[in-house]
Amino acid sequence: MKILPPTVFFTVAALMALAHFVVPGPTLLPGSARLLGVPVFAAGAWINWAGAMRFHRSGTDIRAIVAPTRLITDGLYARSRNPIYLGFLAMLLGAAIGLGETVPLVLTAAFAVVIERAYIRREEAAMARIFGADYEAYRARVRRWL
């Protein structure tokens, strides 16, 4: 896949904003409850940043189109095999809560499906080929998302 995951994230975020202004759907949350989106978004941004920093510190390329050179299993990666994608998802969920409408929530779910099918499955297959038994042991003890 030549489209990088951040591009998918920003495209979905833009579609959420567009939907909010052009075709606002049914309201799910009252005004004050929408503030719950702020800490969810902030947590997602932190998770995303921390996951990316772990790649940087390990000296391996973060881009999904480059074959992995290192198996990272510590830090956030001890809890989630995909913390960067989890961070993107949490940021979108926080934005969807903040907007309080159905369309942004549906787009957030669509993001999760696209990322899982177009990126995670391919990346996991590559990791299994490259790291073999070490990756399979990691996969057995750490969940894909949470």
Tell me what the CATH architecture is.
Answer: Up-down Bundle
What is the helix/strand order?
HHHH
Mind telling me the CATH class? Mainly Alpha
Structurally, how many domains make up the residues?
1
The share of residues in extended strands comes to: under 5%
Would you tell me the structural class of the helices and strands? mainly alpha
Treating each run of at least 4 consecutive H or I residues as one helix, how many helices? 4
Describe, in plain words, how this protein is organized in 3D.
The chain is mostly helical and 146 residues long. The chain has a single domain, classed as Four Helix Bundle (Hemerythrin (Met), subunit A). 66% of the residues lie in helices and 0% in strands. The chain contains four helices and no strands. α1 (5-22) packs antiparallel against α4.
What tags apply to this protein structure?
single chain, 146 residues, mainly alpha, Four Helix Bundle (Hemerythrin (Met), subunit A), elongated
Task: Summarize the entry for a quick read.
The protein has one domain (5-19, 32-141): Four Helix Bundle (Hemerythrin (Met), subunit A). 66% of the residues lie in helices and 0% in strands.
Summarize the helices and strands and which ones pair or pack.
Elements: H1 5-22, H2 37-58, H3 83-99, H4 102-141
Helix pairs in contact: 1-3, 1-4, 2-3, 3-4
